[in-house]
Amino acid sequence: MQDNLDHMGEKKVILREVIRPPLWILAFIYLMFLSLVVAVWAAFDNRAAIFTGIAVTVLLIFIALAMKSEITIDSQEIHIGKAHIELKYLDSVEVLTPAQMQLLRTRDADPAAYLGIKFWISTGVKITLKDPRDPTPYLLISSKKSEELTNTLYKLL
């Protein structure tokens, strides 16, 4: 256990992937917000439009932060966003092609599965679970580093 701790006594992070929304999504949202600013400007005055412009800019920053997710693996657990599970409950890990990922997101989805997916990422990983107390059959995770994530998990299993 001591080998897996850093000098502060915390668990070492073996793999970390931060998934942020792409610029085109944020630009699209901002353009929608700017149409609201124009409507406010047309109905009221410049001060109201400036205030609305500042407000929607701040709101966009909060939206960008809320859309961010993180995958973290340490020596004992995997964290996907706010969800986490101990590695001892992982059964198998499978890299998914964009076609396989699309099917598991839609037609072949299990309602009990945990979906840690982002619509703008077409690849991912399916992690099958073996916890008899948990009805969740698998975790479906969007990842740009699917191969690295799979290799890391197999080394730890």
Automatic annotation (TrEMBL):
Pfam families: DUF3093
Keywords associated with the record: Membrane, Transmembrane, Transmembrane helix
Segments crossing the lipid bilayer: 21-42, 48-67
Protein name per Swiss-Prot or TrEMBL: Unannotated protein
